[in-house]
Target: Cell wall-associated NlpC family hydrolase
Amino acid sequence: MTAPAGRSRALRWFSTLSMTVVLTLPLGTPEVGAAPQPPDPGRERIASERAEAREKAERVGQLANKLAVAESRLHDLSVRVETKREATNKARVDLRRARRAYQRARQAVAASAERAEAAAGRVEHHRKRLDAFVAGSYKQGRRIGSLPSFLNAESPQEMLERASLLDVISRKQLDVLDDLRRARTRKANVDSVARQAAQRAEAKRVAAERARAAAESAKDAAVALQKTQRARADELRKEKAHLAAELERARANVGELRQQRRRHQQWVADRRAQEQDATAQDTPANEAPGAARAPSTAESSGADTTNSARAPSAVNTVVQRARSQLGVTYAWGGGNAHGPTKGVHDGGVADAHGDYRKIGFDCSGLMVYAFSGVGIDLPHYSGYQYRAGERVPLSQMRRGDMLFWQDGGNVHHVALYVGNGRMIEAPYSGAHVRVTSVRYDGIAPYAVRML
Model:
């Protein structure tokens, strides 16, 4: 019994010495065969990189807003150019008409001159007839129609014949005089009408020439402005694309640093678990199993952890449902809780794009579909959606909030904010559901929070 007892005491002493050595090893000392410690970028570096990425995202958003304004201005100028071009076309048509009217007036003047020559010929003819009549009267040596013309008659019959002749001659004389007066009047009237027509035609031609020149000048000025604005928009697009590429690289860098941080934290957690396992081997049995667990801070405070965990999940559901419709065509009046539907007639732009024949979403229809996934039944009208939930200032907007745009106080568009200055929207007829930067031009002062 003595020898075995000695060997037992020696084994107990050796075991105690071995445990002491293990417990006195530094916590950071890696075991043989353990994975090497991953690099730790640190919170400060990640925060710095994240802040830089956020700054670039804000700059991208600002450029996107500037680009949206520039493109809106470009659209307005394009409409203006089209208007000026149509005005130029009108001026050209008016000028051609005025030139034709002027030519017709000149022809009328020429014809009037011919008629005036004819009238002058008739006047001369009647003048000669009158001269001949007067000369014939004087050749008788007395005044025609005087008393001696009747007294020299040899019989009553001759007297009657002379009276009849004198009556005819008198009427002829009056007819000649009337014809002369009418011919002169017609000539004067024809000349006057022709001259007035020519003057009016010339005035219209001159005015049309001026209108055409003014229209051409206005059109050229509008085209020049359009070219300048298009160049500015192209410059903003290039700058935005360059900065967006930098933003993507910055986000990728932040993501890589986060992965490094998580790997390091997991490595530290594994090391601590190994150390705790080693310590637990020497822990008295009455302290390990069945020991009371101290309540966590959240549990002791009585906070509703179920609701706090549910809200992010609901927001993710809303955002993912909206994202699932990316690329779906815009259809005015389209969309419900179950997905895209056929558009409706609007009697205007939507009809011109054939929205009533398409299956898709309009802006408020997309919101109806997104929020129906979490049991929220929104009305299919952006104006009512603006009053559907809690209004928060734009400076406090967060992922899952709805953003609205107004014109004269009337809501006309809605989109879903997805964070990092981005939003999902069904923009307009002819486009598709897309992710784009938040536009601040015309945006309503409040976001609406449903979750």
In short: The domain at 313-451 is CATH 3.90.1720.10 (endopeptidase fold (from Nostoc punctiforme)). The chain is about 65% helix and 10% strand. The mean pLDDT is 77.
